[in-house]
Write a structure and sequence with these properties.
The protein is mostly helical. It contains five helices and two strands. It folds into two domains: about 5-90, no CATH class; about 100-140. Strands 1-2 form a two-stranded antiparallel sheet. Helix 1 (about 5-15) packs across helix 3 (about 45-75) and helix 2 runs antiparallel to helix 3. The chain is flat, with a radius of gyration of 25 Å. It starts with a helix and ends with a helix. The relative contact order is 0.07.
Amino acid sequence: MYSHEKARQKLSLAGLQKSIMDKIKMKWCHRIKLFKGKGTTDHQYHYNEYCKLRKEVKREIETAHNVFISNAENNITQSPQHFWSYIKSKSRHLSPIPILYEGQNLTGNDEVATALGQHFQEQLTIYLMKITRRRNVRTYSTS
């Protein structure tokens, strides 16, 4: 997940103020100008502004998210559905992505872990065999 997608996810949960949204827009404007204007005199200005706004946005989103969580915890007895809707939204993103490995769709965590372990073990074995062959060739050529 990209950072702006993470920010968007937190934005929807935290109900951020307009000022944070405006800073996000300004940050993206500076980012676009930064990449369009490479080699110009404004490049350093846009870079500094982008970095400053990125830091401010991250800090303000984190603060707003913490306030949101705190309010949800404090109001759990008055509004439990608010709390559980937040929990549900967090767990919705944990669905496994099917992985195609050797012609099979793997969806279970154990299947994926086993397949990845097997794949990397095979790759490591091939790599170690290549290194061993190189060392053997070197020892024969130097003697």
